[in-house]
Amino acid sequence: MDTRRTIQLERVRKRMEASDADLSGSTFMNVSLAGAEFKGVNLAEATVENANLSKLRISNANLSGA
Predict the structure, then answer these.
(1) What CA–CA distance (Å, rounded) separates 59 from 6?
(2) Could you give the percent of the chain with pLDDT greater than 90?
């Protein structure tokens, strides 16, 4: 059982900054991340469904097995 504390954000509009953080196992449903930046992130085994990826830019990425 995962004993780490869960932070729940519901019906909020906030700008969030995360640095040197482990958000493994997090769930994002019906969330807007438009204009967000992800640098030096590990998205291995992540699942993306029903997503708008228009104008998405990916550089220097390992896409093996994608």
Answers:
(1) 31
(2) 86
